[in-house]
Amino acid sequence: MTASNIQLDERGRLKHFLSIEGLPQELLLEILSTAEGFAPVGRRPVKKVPLLRGKTIVNLFFEPSTRTRTTFELAAKRLSADVLTLNIGDSATRKGESLLDTLRNLEAMHCDMLVIRHDCSGAAHFIASHVCSEARVINAGDGRHAHPTQAMVDMFTIRRTKGDFGVLRVAIVGDIAHSRVARSDIHALKSLGAREVRVIGPRTLIPPEIETLGVRVDHDLKSGLRDVDVVIMLRLQNERMQGALLPSAREFFELYGLTEERLAVAEPGAIVLHPGPINRGVEIDSQVANGPRSVILEQVSYGIAVRMAVMSIAMSSAAKPESH
Amino acid sequence: MELLIANGHVIDPAKGFDEVTDLYISAGKIAGIGNAPKGFKPERIIDASHRVVSPGFVDLSARLGGGGDEHGATIVSETLAAARAGITTLCCPPDTTPVLDIPAVAELIHRRAQQAGLAKVHCLGALTQGLGGEQLAEMYALKAIGCVGVSNAGRAVYNTEVMRRALEYAGTCGLAVVLQPEDHWLGRQGHMHEGGVSTRLGVPGIPETAETVALSRDLLLVEQTGVRTHFARLSTAKAVELLAQAQAQGLPVSADVTIHHLHLTHEAVGDFDSMCHVRPPFRTQADRKALRGAVARGVIAAICSDHHPHDVDAKTAPFDATEPGVSALELLLPLILELVRGRVFDLSTAIAAITCRAAQVLGIPAGILAIGASADVCVFDPEREWTLTENTLLSAGKNSPFLGRELVGRVTHTLLDGRVVFEEEADVPASR
Predict the structure, then answer these.
(1) What is this structure's pTM?
(2) Which of A5, A128, B130, B323 is deepest in the core (most CB within 10 A)?
(3) Residue B4: enclosing H or E segment and its boundaries?
(4) Model pLDDT, residue B429
């Protein structure tokens, strides 16, 4: 049922990082505490640690991305790995070659870790279940399924700002249906023991039976935001306005756009997250995005430390042959 | 040639016949049941002790490959798999390459099947040209070449006016219409049942209404036109309810379900198992229960394999990018027997659903052990245990969600027009 079997090795250590679902809470906590250790590295004059020296990491991006790709690239470089980034989204490879062929070619080059982003849900699982046994696979976003490193960045940001998860009410707002970030955030928040997780959006953007993931559904922003400690805003893709899901960006903002005024019903110390890139005036008002409650830029800078943590932990299970 | 199938448990649901007796075959026809015809001198005796002797199975939907895109599966390989599975009659839906919308394609399939001589292959002609849903296919010509019905296969006829006229024209030609109810718009981007599992996996969903909206529309058109219509591959409880209502109303409608939909639910997709990528999708436990009950009550007349052999590549990709379909000919009997053992329905109902009832749907003269009828016969051992592996599957398609499964019940002999087209090499002694 869960992804745990493929993500963990026989000793329960992280092998592939594909989805939050199925990972034990201790592992999430280990990632967070390891990330704490890496956070200062970026402020040093020499921004490198030698943990992955000699390792080759390939970033395989079948979908355009700036933020995730660059933070993965920087994370790998700060771990002293050799990094190659392939943007396959627009190249001929995309059309002619199957995903499996692409994988076999990269394996032939003996890379140690694959960071993959793909527009099909399950693409990272697919790669992980076909990769040779030594290589590690990190999911950098697959379709609408999961974006587990972004969820860990969000958890890291929340924990640093708000502390203990057990007292927190968290609202995730916007296009839940198409959001891999929302799914991974929900699993992470549930695993880490958040007091309450709410998802807020119009019925067209809330997937059926989402309650089975342990969340409360609200279609009204005002009642949904009441007393929350954390607001996670989601990016609304422009193409959502072209079909039958939404009439217009204006009406979406009218109903679900986050403004200072609407945030007033939240807890006084509530923080606002957004995985980026932001659509100002569509899902969030500039005043909020730039305001004191926004931790959006912190998310970006923590992104590197968290991805360093995930990469180093996944690689450590492959580090040496068993010595006992 | 005269052949005796001795001492078997003969089940012929068409006549309600069920006893241990002998079956006599002469010149390709059934010559006697229980009593030997005069002067019968068998050249061969098949000992069927402890085995079931039934009419050869009739499968309402099997894709045979070999229509032009040779990806492994051919009419020879797939009719061999059918013979291995006890299936003597099968229907090929029109979504072949090229599309079965002109007589030449049907003729080619008929000829290749005849040359192979392993199973009787009937064609369903296209309802609309190229299955495009806009221009009617030349149904009269398709009937003249031997098509047993017309269908738009898995392609929706979204234009309601075209659907109405297609029904009327098929009725004019005296052809049964086979419809796979799926709305053109709802769930068009979907790849699995829309529900908790699709939400968890982030795979675009196909809602229940994709089936029920199309079925409701088509039932109303059947009511208006009075044309005999068979609804293929139902997957939802709600569709069963709509169908039962229509039948109670006296509409000329029937339905089938695939054997895998009687076994699996959307939970089986697990973590993106592409073997469980099928269309219509596996749905909920409640849906499965309703489908099983509908077979037991006879609301759903037939169980089919909806055989869809794929090469390895077709299933080796992220879930959304894989081809839907299961290689299922050889699973038809053992998976049905599993439901019989689970008391979902009795053996006679089960065999009826893959013999006489399936044949009646399209008016095919098959699925019965009547004297003078073609001796299409299946002998199977209902207790034989075996394991499904890529090697035990004869089909060129190894795409099955049941690989590795322990199964019970296996065909030991298949006769087509009195000719043994399959028999197990290592024949287990009948005395045990």
Answers:
(1) 0.94
(2) A128
(3) strand B2-12
(4) 46
Hey, which residues of B are catalytic here? 306
* Partners of residue B254 on adjacent β-strands: B230
Q: What is the ipTM of this complex?
A: 0.92
Domain membership of residue B370 (yes or no) is no
Total number of domains constituting chain B:
1
Six token digits for residue B39? 């002067």
Residue of A nearest to B192 (CA): A121
Angle between helical axes of A148-162 and A25-38 (0-180°, round to 10): 70
For strands A230-233 and B205-206, give the pairing: unpaired
Q: Is B268 on the interface with A (CB under 8 A)?
A: no
Task: Write out chain A residues lying below 8 Å of B194, CB-based.
Answer: 208
Q: Percent of chain A scored above 90 by pLDDT? A: 80
Nearest residue in chain B measured CA to CA from A18: B271
d(CA B153, CA B94): 6
* CA distances for A42 relative to B173, B219, B270, angstroms: 78, 67, 40
Domain architecture of chain A: domains with CATH:
4-146+303-316 (3.40.50.1370), 148-300 (3.40.50.1370)
Beta-bridge mates of residue B299: none
Query: Is there a contact between A209 and B196 if contact means CB atoms under 8 Å apart?
Result: yes
Question: How many residue contacts between A and B have a Cβ separation below 8 Å?
Answer: 80
Whether B270 contacts chain A with CB within 8 A: yes
Q: Note the pLDDT tens digit of each residue in A242-291.
A: 788 999 999 999 999 999 999 999 999 999 999 988 999 999 999 999 99
pLDDT for B36 = 94
Residue B208 is part of which domain span? 56-362
Mean pLDDT by 10 residues, chain B (432 residues): 96 97 97 95 96 98 72 90 98 95 96 97 98 97 98 96 98 97 93 97 97 98 98 98 98 98 98 97 98 98 97 93 96 98 97 98 96 97 97 96 97 98 69 38
Q: Using a CB-CB distance cutoff of 8 angstroms, which residues of chain A are in contact with residue B196?
A: 208-209, 212
Cβ separation A146–B202 shorter than 8 A: yes
What pLDDT is attached to residue B11?
98
Give the largest CA-CA distance in chain A: 63
B214 in a structural domain? yes
A90 band by pLDDT with thresholds 50, 70 and 90: low
Task: Please tell me the distance from the alpha carbon of residue B432 to that of residue B65, in angstroms, as a whole number.
Answer: 41
* Beta strands, E only, chain A: 56-61, 82-87, 113-118, 136-142, 169-173, 196-200, 216-218, 230-233, 271-273
CATH of the domain at B314: 3.20.20.140
How many Å apart are CA B100 and CA B92, to the nearest integer? 9
Mean pLDDT of A59-74: 91
The candidate with the shortest Cα–Cα distance to B329, out of B147, B92, B114, B149, is: B92
Query: Which residues, listed in sequence order, are joined to residue A138 by a DSSP beta bridge?
Result: A17, A115
Question: Does the beta-carbon distance from A120 to B195 stay under 8 Å?
Answer: no
Chain A residues touching chain B at CB-CB below 8 Å: 1-3, 6, 21, 98-100, 118, 120-123, 125-126, 130, 142-146, 180, 183, 207-210, 212-213
